[in-house]
Write a structure and sequence with these properties.
- The chain is α/β, with parallel strands linked by helices.
- The protein contains 14 helices and 15 strands.
- The strands form three sheets. It has an eight-stranded mixed β-sheet with strand order 3-2-1-4-7-8-9-10, with helices on both faces.
- The longest helix is centred in the middle third of the chain and has 31 residues, at 213-243.
- It starts with a strand and ends in an 8-residue tail after the last strand.
């Protein structure tokens, strides 16, 4: 097949590589010329995605994959077009900002041809495929969905860093606007993906047709919103436990020892492109989902709550030297999208602290580019807030932070034995210096 992939970010590029690696000819479109040039050299544009460099180099060398900034070079002649353009959410209103996706859809529509399958993989509010993209594509192309072309929603369900493994591991969900669209989408994804055998599923692993675009849209929102709500519950338990001398981590381990409980880990923040964003997409179409809103607000408040506990412990943070350990939103990933580091730094600055940031995956210049003053382990410091559970921080000790008066471990990642005699606040546990 000829396949066009629109947007070559951390999900779009691995998808394009997967399609090409399956034996198809792929042209990827992205507005970033530097990114396009890097891909066409066969060079991985972002680190940390397992297997990407080797696969990318091979499919570019074979001519199966190339990138361009021009839709006219990618869309005409394609059998299928896969759209993975980011959808952002307004921070004030929590409403989706469709600007980038509207522009991409308009550019696609100019080159849409009879017989094409169009699949949106970007996570969407329920109803967007049918109510927004269908009329936009029809109006701007002059073609009729269900007759001239077919439209489907098929959410990406992968985890950055292990995209290729997740493509095999998880069923590929689809939701079309017609029976023929569902048939074509099933055939397409069966041709570009392979699936691991799993005996834990109710039906064989593979392409799962959910019967409608709305069901597929909701499935992606539901599985990610569940995680945010679950983490919010864990954080609520953690706050109560710490105030009452209970170690919430022991409690969660005990609860999860039977199959009816699956309480997630509490933490100082919930970051990344997915979990902080998708509950707000869900709320944009279900304003009565109070439990979703409450969890999202609680999780967003955690950086300020833990910094407030540091202030309560020390009496004041004004004039103190503070370091936030970890800029990335989660350990082992060089990605700061919606990272809680920004709220943590703001909370410290609001209380008068002099703040710097350390992250083993970022250079000093990269940290400055994020708006932070970089910190080097071994420099004198008064208070440290562990934000990201990087592997390197598991061995952290007071000697690495000379003069430290308090460590706030927002991930329960540090070794208590190394901190004997130094005040240490661990999320979900009573304060200790042992």
């Amino acid at each position: 097949m000829q396949i066009a992939v629109i947007a070559l970010g951390k999900i779009g590029l691995p998808l394009a590589v997967q399609f090409a690696d399956s034996g198809h000819d792929v042209v990827g479109v992205d507005i970033d010329q530097a990114l396009v040039d890097t891909i066409n050299r066969g060079a991985e544009p972002f680190p940390g995605e397992a297997g990407l460099q080797e696969k990318l180099e091979a499919v570019v060398a074979s001519g199966r994959l190339r990138a361009t900034t021009h839709y006219a070079e990618a869309v005409p002649g394609a059998d299928a077009v896969v759209v993975v353009v980011p959808l952002v959410v307004d921070e004030e209103t929590w409403n989706p900002d469709f600007g980038r996706m509207d522009a991409a859809t308009a550019a696609l529509a100019k080159h849409l041809e009879p017989g094409m399958l169009v699949s949106y993989e970007t996570t969407l509010p329920v109803g967007a495929t049918r109510g927004r993209w269908k009329p936009m594509l029809e109006e701007q192309s002059g073609l009729k969905e269900g007759r001239d072309f077919h439209l489907v929603f098929s959410p990406e369900r992968v985890f950055s860093g292990r995209v290729f493994a997740d493509l095999r591991r998880y069923p590929k969900l689809i939701g079309a606007l017609s029976d023929e669209g569902a048939r074509r989408a099933t055939a397409f994804y069966e041709a570009v993906l392979s699936f691991d055998e799993r005996d834990d599923l109710a039906r064989p692993n593979g392409v799962w047709d959910l019967g409608s675009a709305e069901a597929a849209e909701m499935a992606k929102l539901a599985e990610t919103t569940y995680r945010d709500v679950n983490i919010g519950l864990a954080n609520q338990f953690a706050l109560f436990a710490a105030d009452n001398g209970v170690d919430i981590h022991q409690v969660i381990e005990a609860c999860n020892s039977q199959p009816f409980s699956h309480i997630h880990r509490p933490g100082i923040s919930v970051g990344g492109h997915c979990i902080p964003v998708y509950p707000r997409l869900y709320l944009s179409t279900d304003a009565e989902a109070d439990i979703v809103r409450t969890a999202r607000l609680l999780n967003a408040s955690m950086p300020d709550r833990l910094v407030a506990k540091a202030q309560d412990t020390l009496g004041s943070l004004r004039g103190l030297r503070a370091v936030v350990l970890g800029a990335a939103y989660r350990g082992g990933v060089k990605e700061a999208a919606f990272s809680g580091v920004f709220s943590t730094v703001d909370a410290l600055r609001d209380r008068g602290a002099e703040v710097s940031v350390h992250d083993p995956m970022y250079t000093d210049d990269e940290l400055r580019g994020l708006g932070f003053e970089p910190y080097s382990l071994g420099d004198a410091i008064d208070v440290a807030i562990l934000h990201t559970d990087h592997r390197e921080y598991r061995e952290l000790a007071p000697d690495d932070l000379p003069g430290v008066k308090l460590l706030v471990d927002g991930r329960a990642a540090t070794d208590p034995a190394r901190w004997s005699g130094t005040p240490r606040l661990v999320i979900g546990a009573a304060p200790s210096s042992a």
